[in-house]
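Schema walkthrough. Field components (list of strings):
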Amino acid sequence: MAVDTIPPLINAQLNYLRSNAPFSIKVEQMWSGCRNPSLIDRFTLAIPFCLDYIKWDVIYNAQNPLAAPDVIFGPEDEAFHPFRGMREESLSNSKKNCLLEWNYKDPACLLTLILQLRDLYMVYQKQRVGEVDDERLKFELGTIISKEGLEMYMSSGVEKPEEVRFAVPLLGMDINKIVIGSSWRQQQKIYLQVIFPVVGKFTNKPPVPRLKLVSTPDLRAVLSVEDVRLLPWSDGMCLAEYLPTLEELLASQIKDAVTLIELRRQFIVALAPFFGRPLEADSVFCRKASFLSVSGIFTFVVHFALTLQFPKQPPLLVLQSSQHFDLRGAAIKSSSLTEYPWSPRWDVSEMAERIFDFVADECLNFRKICNESVHQQQR
Amino acid sequence: MEASEGHITTPPPPPPAPYTLPPSSYASEDIIFCIDTDSECLKEMKVGGPAGPFTRLDTMKQSILMFINAKLAINSDHRFAFCAIGKNTYWLQKDFSSRSDFAFIAFTKITELSSSDQADLTQLFRAAAHEAKKSRAQNRILRLVLLYCRSSVTPYHRWPVTEKLFTLDVMYLHDKPGPENCPQKVYDALVDTLEQVSEYEGYIFETGQGLPRIIFRHMCVLLSHPQQRCVQDDIDIPKSLTRKPPASETTTGSEVQGSSQ
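Field assembly_structure (string):
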């Protein structure tokens, strides 16, 4: 039985794309287009665009792996014809049409092609949005068109209302620098997703757009943008007015988030006089720490997990035995412990002392549970 | 300093500095376990199961599984590989993985238990250094945890002192000291090796008591992340959680000098 393989030249292109893309491009499915069904030479890429994904099929030919691939766009984009009618001079010097100059020996070719096509797709969508016959939309677009990193998408189709979606980057600040010690490789950003229904005539009561805050995934360790309560969109509101107030709100949320990192750090440090030096503690976001404790001859690990709602929410505790194992050979763990005396108004030393008292009592229960569990296995 | 009754008192060492957690990034670990498969690993422990007493090898394997479980609960990004040292050094599972079931597969590859009066660690260190370079390229750090169990064979190495590319920890299981063996000499050689080879502070623990729970406890201390460790003398864990002072664990003459409980 033949194992599915990707021809090496094609595989090299795909691996380079996966490792070097500036944002996360997913390979959705892979299949064969040639007579030998175990040679994989076609795949679908899901490319982030305007806070969603566009899906393009990349079609190589396993019988001729030196040739450049074809790219098939989605059914909504029949009008997207990159490279057609574009003369060499109209593209900047560094962006030659890489399909014309496909160098099969260079593993970066596929990524270069995809990024180039994505840039051209952005231009195409900008044109489509610009052509929409909606006065209010034209006005809103005019106020944000110069924002660096803005992306937009025109969605239409059978049985779908026409809508325009904007991904508006917020806050010019470098968020990466604000969190000390972070080793984020990607630039962290927050966007406002704004979806305007297309209505055509200018009315006195234009429909309220749908609004959502979206951040890059790594930022969730510090701030959950989904929990930020958005300001309401009042009558007569427009983006030129809405955005600055929102950015002020976000700047203050980020400031609060950084203060909370420091509070979590102080709490972890306050645990050390009671629980000893941690085995390992998250020194950047201060979201977790694990300690080694003993009660009599029972040695166990205490895992602390701190949510973004700390200190309103108490830490989640899990105890893990070093001496008791289940039938799969895994060390026995307690359930997550969150019900214990707690007040966010205590100072960190008192929080630590109270938790110490709780764990000192609870570990006796835990040891009983561990012993019973092992006893039951031996029956 | 006062001399009284012929004793000279020296001032106690200063207490260790209080714990701090500065905002600096730290790396995920690639950890290689090296199991000593010399025939001494078949010696029996004092505790057993329905099939009979556990061997040192059984306990070493169990303690590694426990370690992996706990380490992944601390941070699921750490990874593990496995090798063994008998007459020679050989890989059991070379590719790093964070899947705990790979340990079971690796253990099945321990086939030969041999007896050797030599323990040259050079090849082991060479392999670890080679992996360390790859780990570093992925923003990880490499650690070698050696589980050694020979009571009369002093290990040696020809690894250059300038090459400190990985952290070395040692768990030493041995017989009670007697006229026929030299666990103290072995222990001292391992301590020197740690100092010569280890990038970050390496820890060494030993026991001759034959009690698995003591080995598990020491392996738990080895869970500590090398980039966040204090020096071994200042280790204050595991800390007792009982509100009254705990009954002290008895130490018999089977412990060697320099141990920490």
